[in-house]
């Protein structure tokens, strides 16, 4: 999915900006999807660990909401068009749909761990891609996201051992 670039006084070439914007819009769609899936877990988890997981998932969704905004605004800073509706997210996201029937804490933890792992790999790949393209600022944004997501994957996996 692609949209036009606007003119800008920014010193990154249109060719570079176009490539970076494409990567960022894929991240935007996937982050939105992961955020709503994490909320789905926050609302529907049941069992002994209910309260702890309910709170943890909400904290994680809150971080993702911040990244949605940061990624979308990096797109517009590069004079691109942020593609951030729910319909675009569902068509473009790298994630499979969340299992809607699960309830147990460990089932939610495991479903989220799978999705966080996919997202973590995408974000890490985006660090080097945007760095190679010469956009150190976007690479830095991805590095910040990557550090948090790796930590969250650790938190999730720590429940599964
Ligand atoms: Fe809530």
Automatic annotation (TrEMBL):
GO MF terms, alphabetically ordered: ferric iron binding; oxidoreductase activity, acting on metal ions
Domain of life: Bacteria
Domain Ferritin/DPS: 22-160
SUPFAM superfamilies attached to this UniProt entry: Ferritin-like
Cross-referenced Pfam families: Ferritin (PF00210)
Family designation: Belongs to the Dps family.
Name of the protein: DNA starvation/stationary phase protection protein Dps
Organism this protein belongs to: Cyanobacterium aponinum 0216
């Amino acid at each position: 999915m692609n949209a036009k670039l606007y003119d800008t006084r920014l010193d990154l070439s249109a060719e570079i900006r176009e490539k970076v914007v494409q990567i960022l819009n894929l991240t935007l769609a996937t982050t939105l999807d992961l955020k709503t899936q994490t909320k789905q877990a926050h609302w529907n988890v049941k069992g002994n660990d209910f309260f702890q997981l309910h709170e943890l998932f909400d904290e994680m969704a809150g971080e993702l909401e911040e990244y949605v905004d940061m990624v979308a605004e990096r797109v517009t800073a590069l004079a691109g068009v942020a593609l951030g509706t729910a319909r675009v997210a569902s068509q473009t996201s790298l994630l499979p749909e969340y299992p809607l029937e699960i309830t147990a804490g460990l089932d939610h933890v495991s479903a989220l761990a799978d999705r966080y792992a996919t997202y973590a790999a995408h974000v890490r790949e985006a660090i080097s891609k945007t760095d190679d393209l010469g956009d150190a600022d976007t690479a830095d944004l991805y590095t910040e996201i990557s550090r948090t997501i790796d930590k969250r994957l650790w938190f999730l996996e720590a429940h599964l051992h």
